[in-house]
């Protein structure tokens, strides 16, 4: 009889461990979906010039760094940067598709890091049309119960004129925003295509 009781205790302990492991996996899966939706929402808001909505996706101390223009620190500075971008309207195309996520989550620490590619179609009717592609290396954390962007760093790999094509070279990157100096200098000096660029990885292997 005692042997049967001991066996049942062992089985119960195993089942409890299995349930705990499944719960942890489910929590990480939920976090993954939330982070993917968060990053996709950023892309959609930027596409349509919804600068305040995009800024609201950042933590209060979040940072933004794009195309080597320096680092903007804090949600309000991110908002100010975004409001200096061209307004969305008739004849404006500003697509920023968020693709190929590689995300690593610290569920207990409520932090995560993610690598993305952004494919861009940018232009104005009768003026210019450009292709762009960038690598994002981002950090996320939970703030007030929600996943938010703690760091967004976009490394511009290529920015080229649509009509000329990339075989003719790239458009010179804009290294500053008129009337809005960054809070910190760029974290990395680089040039986009035709110069080769590999954005630093936040991971060594998957």
UniProtKB/TrEMBL annotation:
It comes from the Bacteria. Residues 29-151 form the SnoaL-like domain. Pfam families: SnoaL_4. This is Nuclear transport factor 2 family protein. It comes from Sphingobium nicotianae.
